[in-house]
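As the work plan foresaw, our protein records have gained a structure token line. A representative record is set out beneath this paragraph:
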Amino acid sequence: MITHGLRWHTNVHTVHPEELCNHPNITHRLLYWAFVVDKIVLYLVVISGWYLIYKKIERIEWSIYSVLCSVCIFITFSLTLYLYYYGYMYEIFSFDLNLDVANKWHCMVHWVGSFGHHCILLL
């Protein structure tokens, strides 16, 4: 992701995709400060993604490629929201009581979000 972002002169994520799975689930309920930091970073990534797509849509020439990228962006954003908020409401996915399951789903949320930001860069 870093090299992709540098290629397009933007900095969406600052970690390599393989490192997204190498950290523990920092949204664990016992670490409130980590929970708050995670939420701040989450909102900053969402805002930066929306800003990038807003700027690109202003000057886009619509084609099959751009429509496909736009559909992928919408699906990945919707899937990320679903996995996060639905999981939070029902204590599943990233919020599962089994930390092994929670870490795997947390990693999946990062992978989906990373893919969506790649699509924004390609748009």
The first helix runs from residue 2 to 7. Residues 2-12+27-122 form one domain. Residues 69 and 119 are 6 Å apart (CA to CA). The helical segments are 2-7, 32-58, 64-90, 99-122.
